[in-house]
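[step 3/7] fold_predict: job queued, chain A
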Amino acid sequence: MTLGPTNGASVLTKTRFEQAMLARLHENHRRYVMAQRGAIRAILRQCDLSGLNFRGMNFSDAEMIACNFKGADLRGAVFNRANIFTANFDNANLSGADLARADLRGARFERADLTDAQLLGADLRRGAVIGEKAVIDDQQGSKFNFAVLRGTNLANARLRAAEFHGAIVSDANFAAADLREVSFRGAELINLNLAGAQLAGADLRGAIVSGDILKSLEMSGAHVGKPPLSEKALETCLGEHARWIGSSGLQGSRADLASRDLSGVDLSEANLAAANLELSLLVKAQLRGALLVAAKLSGANLQGADLTGADLRGADLLDANLRHANLDRAKIGALPGTTLVTLLPA
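[step 4/7] structure written:
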């Protein structure tokens, strides 16, 4: 395939790029950015750019709609004002990349590195390409699940309903950003600038929150986790749960520790079968040998938790944060006598 001008633009659809082809595309577009002779603006549709090296390239004002950038090296690349609608940046390295004011509606950044990236004023609301049509859905947002955002600038960004599940977000700037209904479940939030940000309906249950922002979050309309239980209250809860288990639900009560802060708690050998631990904060908790069969742990933050020898058969761990968790000798799989199987995060 040759790369040539079409009405003053390089228009390619559903094409797999190799590095040499990308270099030619960039040279033509660089001339467009610099307003030089021989310029050809890059316009791509559903092209495969995965794994390629974009370091230092400038694609400002380009159109790369629904393109695949998975695993690409985009360090220091520039996409100012570019239309990158519904692009896939999963596992890509965007350290120091400049995507200011880019149209990134519906884009995915799962497990991507956005350290020091610039997304000032970027549009990251939900969008989808259905056939030849672009569809906007304000009820959902872009996905940054398990991504790294250290020093990332998202000031004035439109992030409504975006997902940051399990992400590491440190020293990031969200000043005046639209964070309504954003989900930070299981994320690590350190020293964020939230000045003027809209946070109504934001979900921070199961998130590790460091710095001086927790009080302001509670007053913003955001959903935050429940405070820790006293040692006595936790002991009572476990006792009532044991009675509930022992009487097949006729006595006592099921342990409901959903959204509760249980960081560092020692629950070794505890019987938490069928307990509700959804969205709980179990960072560095001791769960060695714990009985967690059929337990509900969806969205729980188990970062650094010790689950050595724990029985997790039939447990629901979907969307749980298991970063640095120790699962050595843990029992995972089908729970005998039931249709339940362990559900693990993707």
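[step 5/7] annotate
The radius of gyration is 23 Å.
The first helix runs from residue 19 to 33.
exit 0
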